């Protein structure tokens, strides 16, 4: 199958309006391995869009040379609804303005619908069971009713990705180091991804009970394996969130190497033919998400950091102050633990109690140790 571009309509949410989803397909449908990649589910997070633009160029060349061995689906921007949300020239693509709901929450939990369809159809062959579950997922999604535009969008994203071996959700923070979130059911299977992407922080979670896109893939496999414990059901998808630094980091000198690393990862997994070269050494050890601390401003004012992203801060260190220019008072922001300052908001004015930055503790990941992610 040559490179194909599809346009999926999301329905008309209001009189005279309709948005669409652009989908690029490479390889042959049903070929294995299948990889699915999308960017900007939080629509203002633009670096992933640029990374995928670079990657699409490389995939087109590989397709022309007959080097696509599996199937690849790319959605360059996964949230056209959020991309259209602007207030006073500022993008507001993280939350649905109609409901206030985070676009990366509330994906359908298919566990019950799939379990009903696979009961009595599973056996001792693990790969046959994976195929049976994937087919049941597709049937459940076809039967899923969705009226509101964001719900249609979530259903369509899962229809494109539910049967993929590799599912990559590209995000970015306000300001951050390149980091990844991986569910423990996919660790250490995802280690080659973290090393190839040159991740500076790797956080292992147990999935989000509010059903993020990643969790909608990872948790269904865990739940089915627990429900049908008498037969082998390995995870059918390696799903990960790749946080491509900060929202302003869209320059080619950053995004082109990211695209190259995604391409090499797809080669390494056999989706694209060719030699990816040696796997880079890990830049970090995986950390348990239970040690992730998101810090809030202790007072309103101007946020002044004394440490840069990537610096290691010590517990009880005053690494930041919030200045009240009316009183000239400086309120210290105290590190609650030792760890890496890896993310912070780009805005330097904060209200009291507002999220300003995050520290990843030095707590290493141990199998089955992190709690369910609820952030």
Brief rundown of the structure:
With 375 residues, this protein is of the alpha+beta class. It is built from eight helices and 20 strands.
H/I helix tally: 8
Task: Give the amount of beta strand, in percent.
Answer: 25-35%
What is the domain total for the residues? Answer: 2
The rough form would be described as: globular
Task: Give the SSE order as H and E letters.
Answer: EEEHEHEEHHHEEEHEHEHEEEEEEEEE
Notes on the protein architecture:
By secondary structure, the protein is of the alpha+beta class. The chain has 2 domains: 4-285, Aminopeptidase, CATH 3.40.630.10; 290-361, RNA polymerase II/Efflux pump adaptor protein, barrel-sandwich hybrid domain (OB fold (Dihydrolipoamide Acetyltransferase, E2P)), CATH 2.40.50. Helices cover 26% and strands 27% of the residues. It is built from 8 helices and 20 strands. It has helices at residues 47-64, 80-83, 111-118, 126-142, 149-161, 191-196, 213-227, 252-268, and strands spanning 4-9, 20-27, 34-39, 71-75, 86-87, 90-91, 166-173, 175-176, 179-183, 201-205, 238-246, 287-288, 292-296, 301-305, 312-313, 318-324, 329-334, 339-344, 349-350, 355-361. Strands 1-2-4-3-7-11-9-10-12 form a 9-stranded mixed sheet, with helices on both faces. Strands 8, 13, 15, 18 and 20 form a 5-stranded antiparallel sheet that branches. Strand 16 and strand 17 form a beta hairpin. Helix 1 packs across helix 8 (252-268) and helix 3 (111-118) packs across helix 4. The longest helix is centred in the first third of the chain and has 18 residues, at 47-64. It is globular, with a radius of gyration of 21 Å. The protein starts with a strand and ends in a 14-residue tail after the last strand.
